[in-house]
Design a protein that fits this description.
CATH architecture of the largest domain: 4-Layer Sandwich
CATH superfamily of the largest domain: Metallo-dependent phosphatases
CATH class of the largest domain: Alpha Beta
Structural class: alpha+beta
Radius of gyration: 26 Å
Number of helices: 20
Strand content: 25-35%
CATH topology of the largest domain: Purple Acid Phosphatase, chain A, domain 2
Shape: globular
Amino acid sequence: MKLSSRPLPRPAPLLRPLALSLAAAALLSGCDDGDEAIAEGTTVEIALLATSDLHQNVLSYNYYALAADTSLGLERTATLIKQARAENPNNLLLDNGDTIQGTLLGDFQAQAKPIGCGSTLAIHKAMNAMGFDGGGLGNHEFNYGLPFLSQVMNTDLGVAGVSKPAGNCGAPSFPTVVSNVLSSSSNAPILKPYALISKTVQAKGPNGQSYTLPLNIGVIGFVPPQIVDWDAKYLSGKVYVAGSVESAQKYVPEMRAKGAQLVVALSHGGLDAAPYSPKMENQSYHLAKVPGIDALLTGHAHLVFPAAREASAPALDPSLAALPKPEVDAVKGLVHGVPTVMPQSWGRRLGIIKLTLVYQGGQWVVQKDKTTVEARGFKYTDGKTTVDADPAIATLIANEHQDAIAYAKQPLGVSTDFQMSAYFALLGDVSAIQIVNQAQIDYVKGFLASTTDPTLQSYRNIPVISCSAPFKAGRNGASDFTDVAPGASAAAPQMLQVRNPGDLYLYGNNNIQAVKIKGSDLKAWLETSARQFAQIDPAQSAPQDLVPSYATIFNFDVFYAEGNALTYQVDVTKPAGSRIVNLRFQGQAVADGADFIVATNDYRAGGGGSFPGIDGSKTIIKSPDANQTVVADFLKKQPQLTRAANGNGRSWSFVKTATAGPVILRSAPGKLAVAQSLGLGQVVAEGGLDANGYAQYRVDLNR
């Protein structure tokens, strides 16, 4: 595999062609470090190539389904990168974080059989071979703890009590930066806040001459401040997070003073136009306003920005389409005039920002009228043909891939006689959710029964309920759905494997927690979850999407109580915030002052998703045990999973509504029979595919 040029320690001397005349040379002006000068009016065209949210999807493979998936994988992004490099000889390849966690391959290398210092993570092996020039961190880089991060970055983080293993550990061969995560003991960033990367580029002189020169590019990184809440078990008291804007205002001038001629921000956050706060999760919109930033790479939201260009491309996500104009140009890819890209997730797109720089007044100036931004997908050539994988990547990590598959196939010792899937979780199917809620209730009730804490003992008579979201219900494409197969028959049930708890509960880093709330809190919680749905106009004859965006599917909490004692309905004809009706517990209307204990995860209990009143202040149990482990342990205790006992506890439904036109739910194609087997009579037909490959199922809300 051809490697890209590596970063140079300092600018290389300007190499001028013989064709450059002495008269032209006389026009040259000022240059740093004694290098020869650059002619006024010289231009450079450079492409910034970007990945984000790879989540250890090195290959086009689904470890939960044990099947190939050609819609994702860095091995296919590698092909896009080769093509983009051929189009743009001057290029810089960067990654925007959430790289090391997200598949069973990642969990295997970090938790099941942690790699040693002498080994390199599979994702980093691939990225090193592909010649990445720089990278940033995402929130999921912290999911395995600071010692592991220190090891795989081969860096002493400067955090008290955290030490890097002795020796030279396997790590990215490119600089990884983060400016706004600081050690509580040293008050310094845990990694370098920025990197200055010198690239030798081809330039064009004012008279058309071609020659080479060094270009100093500054790369700075940012992560969401919520990492200290989401991974409090690892980070509390050890690190703190500064606002992205404040960090940029501190370090961008410093980068410029040290010779950065072009500044690229790696912002692991989406675009949120709400008033700025240093604590906001998606700060990229405001980061674009910081003077001195020339280009912005964003992520975290797993969306596409700017709007995809290929034939039959999917529409822009509604959350992005609603951003203010002209501050955001979703066609050109500009945010406050700064070229900005978000290349989806899992390697499914390559961000490409093509810049033309002109040398004016002793500095390089971006020519914004000559800038183009693209989030290039696998089918960019004709909208139909998927690019081939780069075969070198699979060869490179063949052993790690097989080890992960062997791990995924290990038996759990329990069987199921029914299919647990999330294809129609947004219509009320709980076949893949109920078992999670049952496991969480079992854990919290057991915790309360065994505790010696007097306060917790006093809560034993309060009802314990649970909530969980269908994490794999289409957020990352038409193949991203939980599906645990049943056996061939009741007499031959399917034996579950290690891979199945991860399919049922995706986030292995979540720890189980419990919060004590009132009935009014429960109502507000449910209203927030119901925001996932569009407001349906019964009189409209045109098709209406029941779920406009899958970007926040992990915030669609479904509640459950033993014996199906908790029930509620959602009226999608009402505006968000006033949709929950008939909320009952044990047949009685839930009073505002009623007490409940909710089993959930540390992300939600600590304020993740911005649910009203759920901000960490109501947490009564903080467990060291992961939700995914709790689910696995609960499964192992069951003699057999059955639909009657573990998959039929539906707690919610829609208020019946007759509509003049069709209501559409997007899900995986070919699953109408699944809906019928579940008794979901409101799914009346399977329509054609949309631009993202989802089937458009027609839903009758009056059934």
